[in-house]
Amino acid sequence: MTKYSKTAKGHEEIAERRAGLGLRARRLLILIDGRREPAELARLAGDANIDQTLHALVEGGFIQTASAPVAQAVAAAPVPTQAARSARTASLALAQDFMMNTLRTFHGPYGKLDLVKRIHASSSAEDLRTLVDEWQHSINESRIGRKRADELLARLLEVMPA
């Protein structure tokens, strides 16, 4: 199965947001690491039109196809400091977006505004991790949220930066 890796332009886009990618395409770009297959990327990104989004990212020069051996070599290669920082920043932004969007979904746009503001203001993965318990408690306050709490926590942990 085809795997994709970011190009230099893709890493720049994550760090600088110059191309104005849509939310779906940006989220997918952040998740692409040279190891994940499109089916897993679709599941993580929640993108039903994964093929179209991947095609657009390839056409835009943000990602490239990679054979499995090449993808493994890329994954094993040392990541330049700037690229590593960009990936962590992108992963932090993805986790923040996920937490804020789920709170808005289960509590409306103003229901947990203080928590949403603190999530948005967190500047590191450590700051964000201190809010996970409060986020999880807030999700569990909603009847529908309680039913999906375990799934949502698992999805958050998948995108949470190391």
Mean pLDDT over all positions: 80
Number of helices: 10
- Based on CA inertia axes, which overall geometry fits? globular
Indicate the percent of residues in helices.
55-70%
Radius of gyration: 16 Å
Please tally the β strands and state the result.
2
Structural class estimated from helices and strands: mainly alpha
Summarize the main sheet.
2 strands, antiparallel
Low-confidence stretches: 68-78
User: Helix and strand succession?
Assistant: EHHHHEHHHHHH
How far is it from the N-terminal to the C-terminal residue, by CA? Answer: 27 Å
Relative strand content: under 5%
| Strand neighbour order, sheet with most strands | 1-2
In short:
With 162 residues, this protein is mainly alpha-helical.
Write the layout of secondary structure elements.
Blueprint: E1 3-6, H1 8-16, H2 23-31, H3 38-45, H4 50-59, E2 63-66, H5 68-76, H6 81-107, H7 113-121, H8 125-129, H9 132-140, H10 143-159
Antiparallel strand pairs: 1-2
Helix pairs in contact: 1-6, 2-3, 2-4, 6-7, 6-9, 6-10
Label this structure with key terms:
mainly alpha; globular; single chain; 10 helices; 162 residues; two-stranded antiparallel ribbon
